[in-house]
Amino acid sequence: MSWILLQRSLRLYLITPRRIEVVKGFIAKSSNEVRIEDVRAINVHTPGLAGLLGVGTVEFASAGGSEIDVEFKQVYAAHRIKSLVRRLQDARDEEK
What we know:
Helix content: 25-40%
Strand order of the largest sheet: 1-2-3
Number of helices: 3
Oligomer: single chain
Number of strands: 6
């Protein structure tokens, strides 16, 4: 249990009106980000018992390639995160 808590504390997931970002690490930090308007695919995986509880992985891919740019691993309310990003995209489209 403590290993799971340690792993979760080493990741910070951020969603702002302009970008999606994951920051990893404790002492040496690294980050990946993608702009909201560049997201073209959002994949949600909620397997097994954890999936029944709403826990899953959310993957964000941009138009630049088929690989995953940002991944939120084992987060609660995975489908709600996807909906939030889609609403942010729609809001940005309406601004234009």
